[in-house]
Amino acid sequence: MSLTLDQIVAEARRLPREQSAELLDRLLAETVDTPDPEIEQAWKIETRRRIAEIESGAEPGIDGEVATAELRRIVGR
Q1: Distance (Å, rounded) from C-alpha 9 to C-alpha 69?
Q2: CB-based contacts of 11: which residues, under 8 Å, 6+ apart?
Q3: Tell me: the pLDDT tens digits for 56-66?
Q4: Rounded distance between C-alpha atoms, residue 39 and residue 48, angstroms
Q5: Looking at the 3D structure of the chain, how many domains does it have?
Q6: What's the domain range around 21?
Q7: What is the SS3 string spanning 13-68?
Q8: HSE toward the beta carbon, residue 37, CA cutoff 13 A
Q9: For a surface tag, which of 4, 10, 15, 51 has the fewest beta carbons within 10 Å of its beta carbon?
Q10: Whether residue 27 sits in one domain with residue 44
Q11: Helix (H), strand (E) at residue 21
């Protein structure tokens, strides 16, 4: 006998937080499409370019604490 979706959700809600998070991670990993290799390659190139700019001093970057404070301000925390 198969469980209904509602029964599965009810069972999942009874799991400890760590296990429910792992369940969610596993389900998401199985449902997300495989990344497009061209997009992955483009992001690698862009990431390397941005790192090179920061390391060369062409782009000063943002201090981690400043960035975190700005993110908190944006999301209202």
Answers
A1: 36
A2: 3
A3: 999 988 899 99
A4: 14
A5: 2
A6: 1-32
A7: HCCCHHHHHHHHHHHHHHHCCCCCHHHHHHHHHHHHHHHHHHHHCCCCCCCHHHHH
A8: 0
A9: 4
A10: no
A11: helix 17-31
| Residue keyed to tokens 């944006």 | 74
* Cα-based distances in Å from 34 to 39, 45, 50, 60: 11, 19, 25, 34
Question: Which pLDDT score is estimated for 35?
Answer: 80
Residues 41 and 18 in one domain: no
Does residue 1 sit in helix, strand or coil? coil
Compute the distance between CA of residue 41 and CA of residue 68 in angstroms, rounded to an integer. Answer: 28
As a residue count, the chain comes to: 77
- 54's CB contacts (< 8 A; 6+ apart) are 60, 61
Q: What would the two tokens of residue 71 be?
A: 């993110």
Q: Which amino acid is at 2?
A: S
Structure tokens at 39: 């997009």
